[in-house]
Specification:
Layout lengths: L6 E10 L4 E8 L5 E8 L3 E6 L6 E8 L4 E5 L2 E3 L6 H13 L1 E13 L8 E12 L11 E6 L1 H9 L6 H12 L2
Parallel strand pairs: 4-9
Antiparallel strand pairs: 1-2, 2-3, 4-7, 5-6, 5-10, 8-9
Length: about 180
């Protein structure tokens, strides 16, 4: 596969932010020509599939400015520097839903948009849920916690209330387990 590799000739950092960094790289293509690549660097994230004892999936409803709409998602969040993804998953579940779990099992990790970003999402299943308190989301994060059945989740996928890849992936995973 080395015959497909692009060699980086130069890198220009455009923006260093709280969540992402943006840079432009000039690359040499396999045919010897050059091109520019606009790349988003991201620290990675986690997402949690949490199913209650009565078979309801914990979801969060949140306005997403990039989409200019409210969507329903599974609990998720960004990795902090040096933080173990499993610890991030436990933290995000508690912060966003007010639930903790007895066991957390990793399913898979996947890239969200490999054409321009390196964000890697680690997907977990939370088992043995216990409501321990209220959600305590970040100060700039406003969300509602929902408990939905698998049938309701399917309807939300179909009507695009669920409109993100990690949650659609979670739905397909849950559907394959029934």
């Amino acid at each position: 596969m080395d015959h497909l590799k692009e060699k980086t000739l130069s890198t220009e950092n455009i923006y260093d932010g709280k969540i992402i960094n943006l840079r432009v790289e000039e690359v040499e293509l396999p045919n010897g020509k050059t091109s520019k690549r606009e790349l988003i660097k991201h620290p990675g994230a986690v997402a949690v599939i949490a199913v209650t004892s009565d078979q309801k999936v914990l979801m969060v409803q949140q306005y997403r400015k990039a989409l200019e709409k409210t969507i329903v998602e599974i609990p998720a969040g960004k990795l902090e520097p040096g933080e173990d993804p499993m610890e991030t998953a436990k933290r995000e579940l508690a912060e966003e839903t007010g639930y903790e779990c007895e066991n957390l099992r990793k399913i898979i990790s996947f890239y969200t948009s490999p054409g321009f970003a390196d964000e890697l999402v680690h997907l977990y299943v939370a088992e043995g849920l216990e409501k321990t308190g209220d959600q305590h989301a970040d100060e700039d994060e406003f969300l509602d916690v929902l408990e939905v059945s698998l049938d309701e989740m399917q309807e939300m996928v179909e009507n695009q209330t669920i409109h993100d890849a990690k949650t659609a992936y979670a739905f397909l995973y849950l559907k394959s387990q029934t």
